[in-house]
Structures are given as structure tokens and as C-alpha cells.
Specification:
Layout (H helix, E strand, L loop, with lengths): L8 H29 L13 E13 L7 E7 L4 E7 L12 E7 L1 E3 L2 E5 L2 E5 L5
Parallel strand pairs: 3-6
Antiparallel strand pairs: 1-2, 1-4, 2-3, 4-7, 5-6
């Protein structure tokens, strides 16, 4: 019997999942440190109605009608949690795309059980490739 016969295929799947989870943890820690250094409020510590600055990375964007009005929606991740950011009446917001670093300034609301910010002011930040 060869040495490789002792290794089961499930072991490789578990190693790959662990590796990917570790990469996600490192990314989250870097985002949290960057946000803290820049003076941002972690999403996990935001309170409803409180004005905050959240520093993070845009994970996704979507155009979704809300009450018959177009709405541009982005998910911003800061390493501690996800913040849904919605611009009502917009089909696009210049410069906001997945992978972009940004700061959103506004009040946190809760919508559909998720922290949400409507029509925030925002500042685009240079990322590693900008």
C-alpha cells in the first residue's frame, strides 16, 4: 500500500475549507484594523439612529426597486459585519463597485432585520490596486 492511500478525499476538502476560512479571517482582521485606524465605527457596534462613519469594502451591488422607485443597493463589509447601503431614486452611484474601499456617513436604521443606511454621504478610498 502506498502512503497516499492513507489520505481520504474528505481530508483535502476539509483542508481547503480551513485554508479559505483562514484567509477570510486574515482579511477581516485587516479590514477591522484599517477601519479603527481611520476612526470608523465597527458595524457590529453601530446603534440604530446613531450617526456613524463606516469604513469598509463594497462586497456587492444591486439595483432593486423599492416602492416603485429605483434603488441602488451596496453591501459594505468592515470585518465585523455587513452594512446595507441604499440610495433611493438611483440606478447607479459613480465609483461604487465590488472591491472598492469606501466610507459611508449617515444614520444606521434597521430594515428587514439588517443594519441599513439610506442615502448616505460617501467617500471613495483608494484600495490596493487604485
Amino acid at each position: 500500500m502506498s502512503e497516499s492511500s492513507d489520505v481520504r478525499p474528505g481530508r483535502f476538502v476539509r483542508l481547503r475549507e480551513r485554508f479559505l476560512r483562514d484567509i477570510g479571517s486574515v482579511e477581516a482582521e485587516e479590514l477591522m484594523a484599517d477601519s479603527r485606524e481611520a476612526g470608523g465605527t465597527p458595524v457590529s457596534e453601530c446603534c440604530t439612529g446613531e450617526p456613524v462613519d463606516v469604513h469598509g469594502t463594497v462586497r456587492s451591488v444591486i439595483i432593486r426597486p423599492r416602492g416603485g422607485v429605483p434603488a441602488f443597493e451596496a453591501e459594505v463589509y468592515d470585518g465585523t459585519g455587513k452594512l446595507r447601503v441604499i440610495w433611493l431614486g438611483r440606478r447607479r452611484v459613480q465609483g461604487i463597485e465590488p472591491g472598492r474601499m469606501m466610507v459611508v456617513h449617515g444614520r444606521i436604521n434597521e430594515s428587514e432585520g439588517r443594519p441599513t443606511m439610506f442615502n448616505p454621504r460617501y467617500t471613495l478610498r483608494p484600495g490596493p490596486d487604485q
